[in-house]
Amino acid sequence: LDRLGRLVEGAALGVSKFQEEIADAVDNFRDLSDFQIIVHDEMSATDDVVYAHKFLLSRCDYFRVLVQGSFAESLSSSVRLLATKQGVLTMCRYIYSDHIENVSPDA
Asked: Residue 34: helix, strand or coil by DSSP?
């Protein structure tokens, strides 16, 4: 009964433990990633890397076409985006888990 109560409570929050764990996979399992998003932040003129997974990125139409289509990136293991690292991490966490929280306008 206690487990059922936790499940109902979790369902009411709308976020499962699995969603939380899969969202945390973004940029945390570098050795298991098969795709890199090279992030160029024009404000700071720096490059950074977000480690991701083609399989999960393919949940998003944009990335599905990019990594499975006829684009050069489908043969590559990286893509370059003009964005902030925090913005790309937030986007990937949403793609991975269908959940987003605490988004700042600066992300």
From this structure: coil
The secondary structure of residue 93, as a DSSP letter, is: H
pTM score, whole prediction: 0.71
Amino acid identity, position 98: D
pLDDT in tens, 4-51: 444 445 454 556 777 777 777 777 778 888 999 999 988 888 899 999
Would you say the C-alpha torsion 96, 99, 84, 66 has a positive or negative sign? positive
39 touches 48 (CB < 8 A): yes
Whether residue 47 contacts residue 38, with contact meaning beta carbons closer than 8 Å, is answered with: yes
β-pairing, 78-82 vs 35-41, is: parallel
